[in-house]
């Protein structure tokens, strides 16, 4: 493989320079981290599954008119994306109490929220992604009021769509995290959805059993992480029935051959 210029390496993905100006290649790793990288591990085949799941979701969102950075999947671990200026804000959308919301407010995990709640965090590993409000975003100029309006509007549309998509395959969308970026047209910055949507950044519970099918399996040492991610991909129709491991075996085979 020709050497490409690496632009950025994050905890779960690497960004390389793309083939054309304004494009990047997003590579999905098997590395898993939690609690601001204090816990580290590997989930075999995670990168392949997240690439596929995120491709599927971003494609569907594009079809309903949500602007995204996704252009196309290139291979099992890489996708071509539009280069954006990342807005330094993580957008959390919550339908059911869980995780830090439950801890902060003492609400039992699994409690249906009376309405969807959107929260913001400042994207900073050093600071541990602290929670912020619109006031901080405006005061420090991380995004304009118009951009925040677009972000909140897109987050709600994405939530409505994803709740339905997952409910249709027996999964409750408890909460998830989104990231947005700006693309510049002349002097006008437009907000588009960036990053990924996968079991790494969503809480997905089986509707009937409440079994966790997401990264909480890793965070909470529940085991069966790869199987849970495969189950999500399988229910989305991305893995042929009974051939889950074959997809991953093929990838392992390629790695073993040093490709
Ligand atoms: P919580 O605030 O409860 O930890 O997370 C809320 C939701 O956002 C969960 O679905 C979680 O997976 C996602 N989330 C929040 N922060 C991050 C992050 O830094 N990385 C990833 N991958 N997901 C996050």
TrEMBL record:
InterPro entries noted in UniProt: SAICAR_synt/ADE2_N, SAICAR_synt_PurC, SAICAR_synth, SAICAR_synthetase, SAICAR_synthetase_CS
UniProt catalytic activity: 5-amino-1-(5-phospho-D-ribosyl)imidazole-4-carboxylate + L-aspartate + ATP = (2S)-2-[5-amino-1-(5-phospho-beta-D-ribosyl)imidazole-4-carboxamido]succinate + ADP + phosphate + 2 H(+)
Cell division keyword on record: no
Pathway stated in the Swiss-Prot or TrEMBL entry: Purine metabolism; IMP biosynthesis via de novo pathway; 5-amino-1-(5-phospho-D-ribosyl)imidazole-4-carboxamide from 5-amino-1-(5-phospho-D-ribosyl)imidazole-4-carboxylate: step 1/2
UniProt record similarity statement: Belongs to the SAICAR synthetase family.
PANTHER family, alphabetized: MULTIFUNCTIONAL PROTEIN ADE2 (PTHR43599), SI:DKEY-6E2.2 (PTHR43599:SF3)
Name the record gives this protein: Phosphoribosylaminoimidazole-succinocarboxamide synthase
Species name: Sphingomonas panacisoli
Phylogenetic placement of the source organism: Bacteria, Pseudomonadati, Pseudomonadota, Alphaproteobacteria, Sphingomonadales
Gene: purC
């Amino acid at each position: 493989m020709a050497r490409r210029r690496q632009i950025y390496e994050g905890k779960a993905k690497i960004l390389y320079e793309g083939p054309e100006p304004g494009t990047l290649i997003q590579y999905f790793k098997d590395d898993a981290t939690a609690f601001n990288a204090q816990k580290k591990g590997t989930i075999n085949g995670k990168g392949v599954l997240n690439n596929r799941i995120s491709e599927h979701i971003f494609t569907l969102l594009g079809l309903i008119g949500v602007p995204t950075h996704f252009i196309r999947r290139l291979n099992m671990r890489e996708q071509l994306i539009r280069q954006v200026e990342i807005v330094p804000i993580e957008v959390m959308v919550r339908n059911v109490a869980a995780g830090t919301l439950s801890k902060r407010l003492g609400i039992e995990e699994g409690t249906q929220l009376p309405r969807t709640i959107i929260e913001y965090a400042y994207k900073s590993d050093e600071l541990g992604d602290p929670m912020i409000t619109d006031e901080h975003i405006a005061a420090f100029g991380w995004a304009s009021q118009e951009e925040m309006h677009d972000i909140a509007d897109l987050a709600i549309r994405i939530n409505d769509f994803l709740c339905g998509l997952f409910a249709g395959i027996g999964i409750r969308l408890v909460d998830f995290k989104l990231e947005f970026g700006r693309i510049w047209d002349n002097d006008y910055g437009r907000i588009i959805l960036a990053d990924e949507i996968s079991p790494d950044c969503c809480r997905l519970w089986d509707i009937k059993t409440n079994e966790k099918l997401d990264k909480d399996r890793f965070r909470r040492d529940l085991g069966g992480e790869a199987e849970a991610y495969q189950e999500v991909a399988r229910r989305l129709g991305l893995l042929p029935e009974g051939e889950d491991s074959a997809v991953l075996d093929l990838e392992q085979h390629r790695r073993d051959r040093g490709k």
